[in-house]
Amino acid sequence: MSPDRRQINDSRLSLFGHGKERLIAFVCECADADCRRTVTLTAAEGSELRQQGKPILFRGHVADEDGPLAGEPSTETSESRSPEAPTRKGSG
Ligand SMILES: [Zn+2]
């Protein structure tokens, strides 16, 4: 997936995202590089998707699974389990 469409959407969001109810025509960020669909969302909806790290997609289109959206480093969340030792005494 080319980052161009994401950059376009980012710039549109920063340009027009002042009024939350304002409609913005975003570009579909699906895996199809030739996709020219526009996705009309309100500024609030667009920014919400961005905050969640989700792509802006036309209805029914799917994002590229191989390409992680955000260029963030993968943070491994290690589940820290506290071992509970049974405190039983006595033979039984
Ligand atoms: Zn698309």
What does the model show?
There is one protein chain. The protein is an alpha+beta fold and 92 residues long. The chain has a domain at 4-52. The chain is built from two helices and two strands, in the order αββα. The protein has helices spanning 4-16, 43-52; strands at residues 23-27, 38-42. The longest helix has 13 residues, at 4-16. Residues 69-75 have low confidence and may be disordered. Bound molecules: zinc ion (ZN). The site of zinc ion has 7 residues, from loops.
Order of strands side by side in the largest beta sheet?
1-2
Helix vs. strand class: alpha+beta
Major beta sheet summary: 2 strands, antiparallel
Task: Give the oligomeric state.
Answer: single chain
Present as ligands are:
zinc ion
Tell me what portion of residues adopts beta-strand conformation.
Answer: 5-15%
Cα distance spanning the termini? 64 Å
Low-confidence stretches: 69-75
Count the E strands.
2
Instruction: Tell me the radius of gyration.
Output: 21 Å
Number of helices: 2
For the residues shown, what is the average pLDDT? 81
Percent of residues in helices? 25-40%
Tell me the series of helices and strands, N- to C-terminal: HEEH
